[in-house]
Amino acid sequence: MTSDITTDTSPAFDPENPAATIEAMAHRCSNWGRWGEDDVHGTLNFLDDGARVRAAQLVTTGQTFSLAQPFNAEGPQKGWRRRTNPVHTMTDTGLDAEYGDQGFPFGFGGADDVIAMPLQCSTQWDGLGHIFDHGRAWNGRRAGGVVTSEGDQVTGIETAADRIVGRAVLLDAGRALAGELGLEYSELPDGFALTPDLLDRIIDQQGVSSQVGRGDILLVRTGQYSRARREGWGDYAGGAAPGLSFRSAPWLHDREIAAIATDTWGFEVRPTELNGAFQPLHQIVIPHMGLYIGEMWNLDDLAEYCARTGRYEAFLVAAPLPVTGAVGSPVNPIAVV
Amino acid sequence: MTSDITTDTSPAFDPENPAATIEAMAHRCSNWGRWGEDDVHGTLNFLDDGARVRAAQLVTTGQTFSLAQPFNAEGPQKGWRRRTNPVHTMTDTGLDAEYGDQGFPFGFGGADDVIAMPLQCSTQWDGLGHIFDHGRAWNGRRAGGVVTSEGDQVTGIETAADRIVGRAVLLDAGRALAGELGLEYSELPDGFALTPDLLDRIIDQQGVSSQVGRGDILLVRTGQYSRARREGWGDYAGGAAPGLSFRSAPWLHDREIAAIATDTWGFEVRPTELNGAFQPLHQIVIPHMGLYIGEMWNLDDLAEYCARTGRYEAFLVAAPLPVTGAVGSPVNPIAVV
Amino acid sequence: MTSDITTDTSPAFDPENPAATIEAMAHRCSNWGRWGEDDVHGTLNFLDDGARVRAAQLVTTGQTFSLAQPFNAEGPQKGWRRRTNPVHTMTDTGLDAEYGDQGFPFGFGGADDVIAMPLQCSTQWDGLGHIFDHGRAWNGRRAGGVVTSEGDQVTGIETAADRIVGRAVLLDAGRALAGELGLEYSELPDGFALTPDLLDRIIDQQGVSSQVGRGDILLVRTGQYSRARREGWGDYAGGAAPGLSFRSAPWLHDREIAAIATDTWGFEVRPTELNGAFQPLHQIVIPHMGLYIGEMWNLDDLAEYCARTGRYEAFLVAAPLPVTGAVGSPVNPIAVV
Amino acid sequence: MTSDITTDTSPAFDPENPAATIEAMAHRCSNWGRWGEDDVHGTLNFLDDGARVRAAQLVTTGQTFSLAQPFNAEGPQKGWRRRTNPVHTMTDTGLDAEYGDQGFPFGFGGADDVIAMPLQCSTQWDGLGHIFDHGRAWNGRRAGGVVTSEGDQVTGIETAADRIVGRAVLLDAGRALAGELGLEYSELPDGFALTPDLLDRIIDQQGVSSQVGRGDILLVRTGQYSRARREGWGDYAGGAAPGLSFRSAPWLHDREIAAIATDTWGFEVRPTELNGAFQPLHQIVIPHMGLYIGEMWNLDDLAEYCARTGRYEAFLVAAPLPVTGAVGSPVNPIAVV
After folding, report:
1. Which residues in chain B have Cβ-Cβ distances shorter than 8 Å to C94?
2. Chain D residues close to C148, C-beta within 8 Å
3. What's the pLDDT score for residue B6?
């Protein structure tokens, strides 16, 4: 049913020639200049107030789902690129209040806390300044002119503070493909690539509420997080994973989605399909397409609800913490149905 | 119109006898045991799915408002109780990507960042483990049994991860009272106490969309943040401020609101009305009432909208970052109208 | 030659009865009250100015050795008890200076940096408030009266700011015992316990410069750090390790050393010799003996020098960073010979 | 008596032409290439083992002085360039140990802590990568090739880990000049510039132990820290201060000192003597001369000792924490006399 959008204009795909393949795909999927030279919002431009009104009408039961993983020291990070798990510490506790040295009058006592964490250590948004291609950031800007040690001075995550509110569509790839793949759990194996054909097939299988179009926030559940919860993190942070195929870039581009989020560390399949590349799909969709990517989301509870009801859409509010100049942000996304 | 709720059972109020006044008010406003011995949600219990469905129906234009202040080094904190402003630093930048030593292939480049901050340094929720009275936390629990150096092990902010979604009502006290107080700006002076009578008067003046009832999230704009933006922070973090009167506790209690948030550092009036007390209203509403308090919210843009349209209600999603065991959380609250 | 100090008064040692064994040893090795009720220095009292003058006279070549491991993200920590490796980030760089947006006049440019780290993530001193036994801290004080969320308010590491300056003696256990143990490298295997007899034997073997007495700072090289450098960290932070035997407590006590440091994470042998205990030697020497413990020191270069020259003593300055109220401190110990 | 070193070849000094004055001084004082193209140590090359042996012989009483200020939240930082005071927090306390939820057996209890801080928030060394002139770092290297977001990859502070050990000479400028300036306290006023003539006069006045020569570590006490301790920090961190005159650069250069440290935030006089410049003396001595600068040292106790004994020299060990790639480091300098 989504077949009216053609993806057969995909550029040549040569796993042995990553440089040329990436360049061709960047050209194919570029949105540079689409919203003017000064644009800082990228694909969030597809999401307008009218879409938000329609999305709010999806609320029929009032049930809410937090799509965040817990933020704590037990997270998946292992120190790569200085990414630790959150270090949350107390500056005052109930024990101190009982002990009575807090200096407050009339029985008043308090607890207080601080945190130190990478902005992308757990459930997060990638900002548009997070990834560059050949020294170019979103909309063709010079990378060094966008993100300095002062942070992202053009497309900092604060530019999205009030924007990521709209219709979410869940593609539960793990569940939809479990049968044909003969999976024990509704979880795709590591290294499994979600190609355009598979995305279309999942939509067909899930039914009409799964149609993906302009301004939608696409949620893709691979099941890897479910597996990590059952079996331990392993290499969840940076290792092999199921995810979007590099070939899905035109599909994502042509549907004019506002954002995409998955339950994996890096959204795209790993190992990558292009020999020797790092995250080639990131390299396309962030700097060239201007797409917001959510990573390490917890889609399990929402997926259960969707499977039970057959409704795969929700009203989503996923507001990043407006840290000035940040290239990413922790987020507690809320889906309301 | 809200006069059907009686507040004349308020206990004796003696500024010269804070201890007795606090104790009587705690007794008057206690919700201990109301939702069972094991309750961890406090007044969020008033906010149910039905209320959320009705709240979603308030979305008619799709316009969104971020109610967060910027999170950056220019914030109001001065180091009290080790509360600094956020320290946001980059671990990789666009300049590094251009320089070419990031070690990625095929032109891939990235920026990444970390943050260190108190959880209550800017726009925030106070969790139920944040304040104690005489060694007692929410629902009568022993403070030291709730919050240790491991964090809040009972009422940590993660318990509210999916709950703070509902109808918000804005009481724009600064604007509503500007005329009778002869204010140059729609900003209450520091030390101005919002008593029950004044709250009722504001509701009457703003009209029917301002009615406050069970499960609502009450937003009170004093105007102090507008003043800080114009004149500089001064003692915004911890100094004198307009805010809720200690006497408003029964009013807040009887209306069965789910939460309250203001545009000031500490929600209640400072200096306090009780001689020598610190934050006596906190001492009532958090441990005894179980009320969620939002502080340092930016209500200015929403207030402009409300003043222009005469509609003072919105659909609000204000999901805390689910830091396990945190006694507070930064938040980017989103109002949708 | 150190046989004039008797250790045969060691209490009963029963691996199957850790509680009683720990209690007896605590009694045997206690220094509570030895330097008065108000003492905060513990065994550092053994180190006086006269000893420092004699120690300075050991400087004959002017050669210096830094006994610190590198402080960086590649360290051994894995997150246990929220202990990460140091997260060092730049707030300004040379690339930014070149880019020219730093705002300084006349060609001035700068780089600046911040760090977030556990105080005991790398080469360190344990302060006297780091370990308790049955709720008692050094000198018999109530643990909760010493260390609150405000830090160690009695024996904070700042009390040792100017004190850890004196004679160091290196016992290179890995090298001394390599022959009789048939080791390929001069590195003791994990789980190897250094008992009093072995310590005496090492001293005899190394010769007269190794004699250990009052006020000395004892350095014990097991070789585990050398192994970690060759083979990777593995479980260096918290796993099995060679180290001081629980039975060495009286030996350490009776020699009246000022401090001890090793090249391992935890100074004492692991797994512990007492069934089910955690770090029983810590439990004796910190709260009962008042002994300063250095951990994760890099003794390799100094050991090479000592082996080459046959001199196993040096002038040592190992000044903790005086973080007010800290229960430990990173340190860059300097040995001068 | 130090008059045998001529400084009359100082370049033209024109406060109204900072650019030319800085350039001429850079040329006058450059050490680029002096120790080879690959040098990373700068003036620390002047400090050799022979000097260290002589310095150790200065130890005659064994008395030690910690020259560090306290590291805590009460420090002078106000947030400029994201420089906060240290945030030291506990991850476990004695209260927790007493409470009994730490999970350790047999009465074992522990306290642990973490810190987040700028590396230059309190007593510190500036590394050679801290300051650039016209995009050039020490020894003429490209600034961006030295310090990236990965840190200083050439002259990181770890290169000085075992080097800053030698003879310190204290010039107590505040005390020496108090008489002729008619000062109430032995503290120079803010804005007071220590020119070469004054430095020579102080040395003459203090006597022979104050002679400054090759490899010495020069300590200059202005008295500003004493004033801050008495009157409060005020603008200690970044405001007006007494300090070294820009004109002292040739004096510092020609004496071939290894390092210099003062009791002020920025070592050089502020406001600067060059109209509109920021820290022009830094701009000369770090990138061109390769000089290590210590700032915010506490020289008061040592100064008392020196005044009392008439001896102004000591054995100094001031080992930076070897944070890999850091452009500065906190330090607890120890003087032994």
Report:
1. none
2. 90, 93-95
3. 47
